[in-house]
Amino acid sequence: MSGVLYLIPNALGDGDADALATVLPASVIARTATLGYFVGENAKSTRAFLKRVGVARPIQEIEIRELNVNTPAGEVDKLLAPILAGADGGLVSEAGCPAVADPGALLVRRAHQRGVKVVPLVGPSSILLALMASGLDGQRFAFHGYLPVDAGERAKTLRELEQRSRKGRETQIFIETPYRNKALLDTLVANCAPSTLITVAVDLTLDSERVATLAASDWKKQAGAFDMHKRPAIFLLLAN
Prior knowledge:
Layout: E1 4-8, H1 17-21, H2 26-34, E2 37-40, H3 43-53, E3 63-66, H4 76-84, E4 89-92, H5 105-113, E5 117-120, H6 126-134, E6 141-146, H7 151-168, E7 171-175, H8 181-191, E8 197-202, E9 210-215, H9 216-222, E10 233-238
Parallel strand pairs: 1-4, 1-5, 2-3, 2-4, 6-7
Antiparallel strand pairs: 7-10, 8-9, 8-10
């Protein structure tokens, strides 16, 4: 009989075990601490997460394998092998919920195909936290991940997303590499209608957390006062 694949959320920022306990339920930490096999994007950061959890066995006895954008699709079965052999295992995200905007979705899909029980555990999601805090429409929304890097393509994509939002009354959600946050906000302000609502949420769940929702015209006046440089951020827009 195969084991269980647990989907284990991670904190959205660095910190010690006490900080981890503020965003992960005790039951999630306890379940994670019992496991001896994990799959994560990066073995080093996964190991650091497990040290914060306080795993039940010596860290050197825990098996950690990597699954990231460079992992060939044909390797996924090998990652699932210990679970198929009967061991319970955990899929850990670098931040937030695994398999959501995360390469771990490949492992979850394969687990279902092989009849492995998949159990999602409770933890922080920057997408849902930002939507909750935005005041924008939470009935209809779409997450797009990263937008094009090319300036022209990015502006075109944002105009298309604004039109989609206006037509369907649908909140559009996307992210950016932290050092390009300000450039993305500038592009939003330059290409969106003055009345379009834009939310910027940075450092969610951290002491430095800040969330603001303003019309594009107001962001044009106040963007310089909002420190988002090299801080994890998520952006939302809703066209009126």
